[in-house]
Amino acid sequence: MVDNTDDESGPRRLTYLVYVPSEKRPMAVVGLASQPVVLTHVEKTRFDQLQRTTKQNTSKTHEGDCYQSLGCWKDNLTDRAIPTLEGTDPRLGDSYGARSNPVEKCYQVAHSRGLTVFAVQDGGQCFGSANGHNTFFKYGRSSACGVDGEGGTSTNEVYLIGVNVALGKPAFQTSHFRPPGGAASRAVDGNTDPAYHHGSCTHTSNPGETNPSWWVDLGQSYVIDRVLIFNRQDLCPERINPFNIHIGDSYHISTNPRCGGDHYINLNQPSISVSCQGMKGRYVGVRLPGPYRILTLCEVQVFLGRCAPKILDNSAPNLYKISSELVCRMGDGASYRGTVSKTETGKTCQRWDSQTPHGHEYTTAKYPSSGLEENYCRRTSDWTEVWCFTTDPMASARWEFCDVPVCVVGHKRHGCKGGYIRLGRHCIRLVPIPKSFVDAQLACKADGATLAMPKTKELDLALRRLVKTSGGNYDHWIGMTEDGDVDWTWVDRTRLGHYRGWHPSEPRDSRWDSLCVHYWSSGHTIDPMWDDTKCSEKKWYICQSRPHI
């Protein structure tokens, strides 16, 4: 079916041609940031916003964040939103009212059956089904759940199983719908709204192409548990069938192993969960086999459903977990014990027990609680970020920060609103709409945010990396101006501190123009850096807000 009605409002985007040697031809690759989405019916958007307003589990049985709350939802005793699991497993054979660790035990049963969500009600009653992620919201939200995470009378505390490692990662696709059509990054923006015209679905070229593909770069290899795909529902939902999922370490996604064969989604359902247990890879892709195909994805979520037991339930001796601290870092990364061993520029880390090529004093004896193992990135007590020494003998490359993803699961106070991603303690959104500095600041303010203020080296490097990987080759306003005294001031009226990220030839001094600061993407060969220019120029911009409280 050819949809000639597809059109979007928004900024102009460009498709970049990347020469792929094995293909012997240029390949169109798109990976730009998505636009904000205004949602009026939360119940109809399933997981969008929910994952950004999560509650960390309060489990005393396991360590690690293997499930996260999707909030409190109404139920109906005569027509359950999610069927009960009570009495279907020995772990749920007792009276739920007297059950110890009811949330954890419900999770264990749901996880052992490969479910995506589970729910706890009335102090411990357990619910779950293979289709629960499509039905839990059918009666709307509730505020009647208890603070213990065990639901309430006829109200479910609903939990999502696993850690979605695709959220906010760089995404690409083989072609692009006419400007400014569905950017690849829309499938990893955390918004599962199934309506393309709401601005959160991808779209390849129309008319179709042969074997259109979309893929996400997770940054490192993971053992994948399942892939959850949200299909378009406002028009042409049948386009996606059949589809293939490829997982592996090759950027050429079609050369990676397939997860199963041809998959088909039920067109009456918004999503499909595909089990890929045991497959490992850095790249996860969706490919439509055959000619004249159009690929539209409203969200792709990649879950590591395994997490690490501190204490195992005796009734589930085979249950095992991997703490989220092995795949992402919480807060400043002090507790990170993962295996990332590359810096943010791709350099290999030097072993901590080696003095070659760089001599140092970072030993396990001096820093016994920092986990200085192998050549893994770590945050030592005297640093504020995860880092390592490099194997590059150049003195200028002695050490670098590491690109370890920030865990986005956690207490609901730590969530970001729709369209924003989490960078440390900040919520960030790249906005691909050219505006003057003043108009950009007003637009951020209208969204409850401000222009980004990279006051620290850590945030500045994170924003540079984000602009470089997801912002195309465009300049982006940040929230700094000249205050009239040839000094620089952030938009919150604080003066520029000791840290400065200027391009070597900046800033300039102008007595005639009001100057504002932006990330200059084309002015530096490695990363965008600060540059001052006329405030009247129109550029893309970066909004920054605080996590939800």
Structure, explained:
The chain is mostly beta strands and 549 residues long. The chain folds into four domains: 16-30 and 166-303, Jelly Rolls, CATH 2.60.120; 56-161, no CATH class; 329-404, Plasminogen Kringle 4, CATH 2.40.20; 420-545, Mannose-Binding Protein A, Chain A. The protein is 6% helix and 24% strand. The protein is built from three helices and 21 strands. It is globular. The two termini are 45 Å apart. Homotrimer. Keywords: Calcium, Disulfide bond, Kringle, Lectin, Metal-binding. Disulfide bonds join 349-388. It holds the Pfam family Lectin_C.
Mean pLDDT: 76
Shape from CA axes?
A: globular
State the secondary-structure class.
mainly beta
Number of strands: 21
- Taking the alpha carbons of the first and last residues, their distance comes to 45 Å
- What is the number of helices? 3
- CATH class placement of the largest domain: Mainly Beta
Q: Write the CATH fold name of the largest domain.
A: Jelly Rolls
- Rg: 24 Å
List unreliable stretches of 5+ residues. 1-65, 307-326, 408-414
Q: How many domains would you count in the coordinates?
A: 4
The CATH superfamily of the largest domain bears the name Galactose-binding domain-like
Biggest beta sheet summary = 8 strands, mixed
The ordered H/E elements are EEEHEEEEEEEEEEEEHEHEEEEE
Keywords: Calcium, Disulfide bond, Kringle, Lectin, Metal-binding
Function: Acts as a defensive agent. Recognizes blood group fucosylated oligosaccharides including A, B, H and Lewis B-type antigens. Does not recognize Lewis A antigen and has low affinity for monovalent haptens.
GO molecular function: fucose binding; metal ion binding
InterPro entries: BG_Antigen-Binding_Lectin (IPR051941), C-type_lectin-like (IPR001304), C-type_lectin-like/link_sf (IPR016186), C-type_lectin_CS (IPR018378), CTDL_fold (IPR016187), FTP1 (IPR006585), Galactose-bd-like_sf (IPR008979), Kringle (IPR000001)
